[in-house]
Amino acid sequence: MAERKIFAGPRVRRVRMSMGLTQTAMAEALGISPSYLNLIERNQRPLTVQLLLKLASVYKVDLDLLQGEGSGVTGQLREVFSDPLLAGEIPGDQEIIEVSEAAPNAATGMVKLYRAYREQGARLTDLADMLAREGHQTSVAGTRLPIDEVREQLERRPNFFAGIEDAAEEFGRRLSAADDLPAALKAWLKSEHGIAVRTLPVHAMPNLRRRYDRHSMRLFLSERMSPFDRTRELAMEVALLALGGEISSELDALSFSTSEARRVARFELARYAAHALMMPYGAFLAAAQRVRYDVDLLRSRFDVSFEQAANRLTTLARPGAQGVPWFMLELDHAGNAIRRAGAQGYPRATFGGLCPKLAIHSAFAQPGHVLAEAFEMPDGSAFLTVSRTVEGPQAAFGERLRRTAILLGCEWAQAVETTYAQAAGGTSARVLGGPACRLCERQGCLARAEPPITRPLGLDEMVSGLSAFDFQ
């Protein structure tokens, strides 16, 4: 039987370099020429039995370390590539053997990285179990709540539904609302479906915004709502009756997994349709361009709220008749994201809306004031942001007012088309922020609230930076 040749050049080189030897010094100790050792290290000559024994005696090297498979790296690489994430990437063992023999240092690095990945996964699992034991409902993340599924579906697509828009414009032409849309909507409900609309005082309907009584054919609206919100509730009821087919068609196209998710999405699309009835696409786009997207002028022109006009701006994506691609975020005092709109142009992965420097947080200290600024990310991308607080249903004396804040934004390249660009300033006036602190690598940030998970902490007793969470 022919003797198996051992090509172990990278391993011999690794032994030499770990000892800080030159090729000349090692060759002299082994009794060979430097050129021959160079050929061995480049796998152009195999190791002879005499050289193996010489290496073992002179440098106390384990022979198994020089014989490939015995080193253990090949077996460890097999474990790495048996992971479901990498299964099928390498068809057989030969390529694994070649990698472990030709680049043992790189192979060892891959093994270490894989072990770190597995350890991190185990830690996250332990953290999830701990939170679950403490009462936090982490288990729903695997199956997703219906509202989570709806938000994911709606936020990853343009906030534009052509079928609903076309039907709403056609219905609006037949409605002939003139300057009194609420009266026209009430008249249509009464004449077409026999539904009467009444506004009830707080004591009669303390916990509801709207209630439809099928037996008496009456739609009750709470007096807690502003006139703008009452108009939207009316428009939603009309949309569900008059545009039900178009809403169902859009729901079918979205393909939700459960009937509950479909029900939640139907409500969201009814809200979309209500805005389309209150602010017809063509008229709203023309007015928006004419007033340079001034939300306050638009709300006055269409008799709607700031939130409704801002929301409508995110829907101007009709092919051939597009407006500035706005995105919108609504937060409460605690920073919880209540609503996002405008997936196209809203860089959710890099923007997030949770940077402490965003003006949306400052808006709570200046209720009703519009704050415009230029906001720059660590990668150099920039946005125009327009922030303002909005009020919820009317609170009675002694009740805590519900106040949220709207952030309306677009990429800085489109800011020149808006009335807010000049107030936001130029490049020198940009606010240097980032995504959520845990994802942001901006150095020296005074507002940093957490260290980034992407960098190790810079724990140096001799030096302290501007942030309490310095990192390397």
Automatic annotation (TrEMBL):
It comes from the Bacteria. Keywords: DNA-binding, Transcription, Transcription regulation. Coiled coil: none annotated. Pfam families: HTH_3, Peptidase_M78, ScfRs. Gene3D superfamilies: lambda repressor-like DNA-binding domains (1.10.260.40). Belongs to the short-chain fatty acyl-CoA assimilation regulator (ScfR) family. This is XRE family transcriptional regulator. It comes from Pseudorhizobium endolithicum.
